[in-house]
Amino acid sequence: MTSQAETVTVRVPGKINLGLSVGPLREDGYHELSTIYHAVSLYDTVTVQPADDWSVHVTGPWGDRVPADASNLALVAARTLARRRARRAKVDPVRIDIDKNIPVAGGMAGGSADAAAALVGCRELWALDHIENDMLEGIAAGLGSDVPFLLHGGTAIGTGRGEQVTSVLARGELHWVLWAGEDLSLSTPEVYAECDRLREEAGTVPGTPEPSGELMAALRRMDTDAVADALHNDLQDAAISLQPVLSEALAAGLDLGARGALVSGSGPTVAFLVGSQTEAIDLSVGLAANGPHGDIVRATGPVPGAQVVHHRNSPEPYRALPTPHRPGPPGPVTG
Ligand code: ATP
Known about the structure:
alpha+beta, binds adenosine-5'-triphosphate, Ribosomal Protein S5, domain 2, 10 helices, five-stranded antiparallel beta sheet
C-alpha cells in the first residue's frame, strides 16, 4: 500500500546539441531538423510524492525563474501520465519538488528534462506495468521535442522536430565548460523566427537537414579535436543576432584555449569543449576572470537520462539500472 511518506527522487541531466541542422518550416509550425543531442552532467533533481493536491515547488540556483504553477512542464507531464493511466487504475495527485540547476530558457532543455524526470518518477511511484510503460515514449514526444531524448540521455541523433531519437555509439567522455550569461535568456520560437528572417535576408533556402558525417565519425573515435572541428549549430547566428554578447563569450573561451565552442540549441548557453578536467578548470577560471559575466559550470558527457536515484518506503528494495555511461563531476565554479 502507498504510504504518505513514499518519495521517489530522479536525477536528470541537461543537454547540449553537438550539431543542429535546421530545415524548412513545416506546415505544423515546427522546423524539420536533424540534431545530435548530448546529455551533460549538469542535473536537476525532481522528487515526487503522493499528496492531497497536485503541486510543484522549485528551489535551487535557477528556481526563481521557473513557474511553480500548472504550466510547469514537470506537473504537466505527471498529470498527462495520470490522465492516461486513469483509464486503467486510480491515480492520486502528487507533489513535485524540483531542485533547479539547469539554466532556465538557456537552450539546455531544462523544462523538458524536468518533464522526463516527472514521468520516470511517477512511473516508479505508481509502479506502472509494461503496457503503461510503452505509453511513456508517446507521452514524452507529445510534451516536447526534447523530452524523449531526456528519458534516454547519452548521445543521440534527433530527427523530425527532434522527438525521434536514435542512440549514437560514442565511447569515452568529453569535457565541457558551460557559460550561461547572467540575466540572459532566449525564447526558442524567437530564435527560430530570427533564423528564418536571416535566411530570407540572405536568400538562403534550407535543404533537408542531415546529421553531419564528420561529427558522427569524430564521435565514434571520440577524438576531441575532431569533434571540436565538427561542432555546428544553424541557430547560432540567430542567437548571436538577438544577444550579441554571445559572440564575445565564444571568442573569450576560444582565446583562452577551448578546443571548440558553440551556442547550445537555441541558446543562450555557450558550450566550450576542452581536452581534460585540468583544461576545464583552467578555462573556467580564465572565463570567470576575463569573459563576459555569467555562471560557469564544468560538466562531462555523455551521461544517462532521467534516472531514479532514491525511492523511500518502496515495497521492494530499489535496484539501480546498469549505467551505460560514467557520469563526471559537475564541479560548479562561480562566475
Ligand atoms: P528548449 O531548448 O527545450 O526550447 P530551453 O532550455 O531554452 O528550452 P527551458 O529551460 O526548458 O528552456 O525553459 C523554457 C520555458 O519553459 C521557461 O521560460 C519557463 O517559463 C518554462 N518552464 C515550464 N516548466 C519549466 C521547468 N520545469 N523548468 C524550466 N522551465 C520551465
